[in-house]
Design goal:
Elements lengths: L1 E16 L5 E21 L4 E5 L13 H8 L4 E6 L10 H12 L4 H7 L3 H4 L5 E4 L4 E4 L6 E6 L6 H10 L23 H7 L2 H13 L4 E2 L6 E5 L2 H13 L4 E6 L4
Parallel strand pairs: 3-4
Antiparallel strand pairs: 1-2, 2-4, 2-5, 5-6, 7-9, 7-10, 8-9
Length: about 260
């Protein structure tokens, strides 16, 4: 059994559009202990994927799934059982985490990881980094263990749609800045205005979440999940309970992976 842990972008600046159509970013990114996917594999005569779990709906089982692409890159015929505990289109990197977990299990390389997608190399270690370029440049940074909650609404955000909206809106820089206890710098997400344009329900979800936890939350990546930081673990667990009482059903109290 392999666990594939999610990530959150604590802060994300979009620096501009590249000639190749991608965007240059500066994203402070960390792994989190929860939520996570669980992967079981066994040798087989054919490569197959079965998906179960709380967030299985809509997850492809063909070669568009990154974990299948990872198996093909490894030249392995496997029966893969994937239990989805990480919501899709939430800005938590679930698909990339799955691919990296499979690569790690079979001694796959960073080169293979980089061929699969910009987020996959991060998950080969999942220690704090600044993701630069289009996300493929990883600069290790020191970030202490943070107590956080991660909360996801019952809908996702398409990353390509959010970046298109950022372009169409003129490349806005977000003015909403929040503080994480224990983190030296305040955090901001330039994609938040574009994500709220693509999915207006985000505003109401964030308002309900922040009202319940009594502090500010920040969108992770292109969304749709949010995170918020707390001084001690007990505060994070209490906030998660309060969020659930306020009908935020997908919420986790967890810690970041330090580096």
């Amino acid at each position: 059994m392999i666990r594939a842990h999610a990530k959150i972008s604590l802060s994300l600046r979009v620096l501009g559009t590249r000639a190749d159509g991608f965007h240059d970013i500066d994203a402070l990114t960390v792994g989190v202990r929860e939520p996570f996917d669980t992967i079981r594999v066994e040798a087989s005569d054919a490569l197959t994927l079965a998906v179960t779990g709380a967030f299985a709906e809509g997850v492809p089982v063909d070669d568009t799934n990154l974990v299948m692409q990872a198996a093909r890159a490894l030249q392995r015929t496997l029966r893969i059982e994937l239990d989805k505990g990480v919501p899709s289109q939430a800005g938590l990197g679930g698909g990339s985490a799955d691919a990296a977990a499979l690569l790690r299990a079979f001694d796959g390389s960073y080169e293979l990881a980089s061929q699969l997608g910009s987020d996959v190399p991060f998950f080969m270690q999942a220690t704090p980094v600044r993701m630069r370029g289009r996300g493929e440049i990883l600069e290790p940074v020191v970030v202490p263990t943070l107590h956080v909650i991660v909360a996801a609404p019952p809908f996702g955000c398409s990353t390509p749609a959010v970046y298109r909206a950022w372009d169409e809106l003129g490349g806005p820089q977000s003015e909403r800045v929040i503080h994480y206890p224990g983190l030296a710098e305040d955090v901001v997400n330039d994609l938040e205005p574009a994500a709220e344009h693509v999915e207006p329900r985000l505003r109401a979800f964030r308002a309900r979440l922040e009202g319940a936890i009594r502090c500010s939350a920040m969108l992770s990546g292109s969304g749709s999940a949010y995170s918020a930081g707390f001084a001690v673990a007990a505060d994070a667990y209490a906030a998660a309970d309060a969020a659930r009482t306020a009908a935020v059903t997908s919420v986790w109290a967890t810690t970041t992976v330090a580096g």
